[in-house]
Specification:
Strand content: under 5%
Shape: globular
Number of strands: 2
Strand order of the largest sheet: 1-2
Radius of gyration: 19 Å
Distance between the termini: 84 Å
Oligomer: single chain
Largest sheet: 2 strands, antiparallel
Structural class: mainly alpha
Helix content: 40-55%
């Protein structure tokens, strides 16, 4: 007798979804690798939550595609530190706990990062990570605070 709660047999999109997840994780790894070629002074900023950035770093880390200058796999905490520095985001004290909490969310309207990326790709946004990164415009003077009299 078939278990009616077992959706793995009825869901014909399961393998495709796994491929999409892997593709997005690899894309994030490539995007982070490109980001790490820049310096914090270049003015890039993160337009999403800290948890989303840490989750993106974790997804990229799981691919094993990020390496240091010696060819060794880059550690998860080091990836988060470099991303936070370059995107001007406060480094969490425990990035692993941020990922754990993000994956345990229930009953929230905004789904996990992967789910949102799949939705954005469905809307024609090829690289959702770049959609969340903005560069400060050069040439605009920052408004100076009023002088005390």
């Amino acid at each position: 007798m078939e278990n009616i709660n077992d959706t793995s047999r009825r869901d014909g999109n399961r393998p495709e979804k796994g491929n999409q997840e892997r593709m997005i994780s690899c894309m994030l790894a490539d995007d982070l690798e490109e980001l790490f070629r820049h310096t914090p002074e270049e003015g890039y900023g993160w337009m999403d939550s800290q948890a989303a950035l840490v989750e993106a770093c974790h997804m990229a880390w799981t691919t094993g595609r990020l390496h240091d200058a010696m060819g060794r796999n880059t550690g998860f905490h080091h990836i988060v530190r470099m991303a936070c520095e370059r995107l001007h985001v406060r480094m969490p004290a425990n990035p692993s706990a941020v990922v754990y909490k993000a994956r345990q969310r229930k009953g929230v309207r905004v789904g996990q990062l992967l789910g949102r990326y799949l939705i954005l790709q469905g809307q024609g946004i090829r690289d959702p990570f770049r959609f969340c990164v903005r560069r400060r415009r050069h040439g605009k003077r920052q408004q100076e605070p009023p002088k005390a009299q």
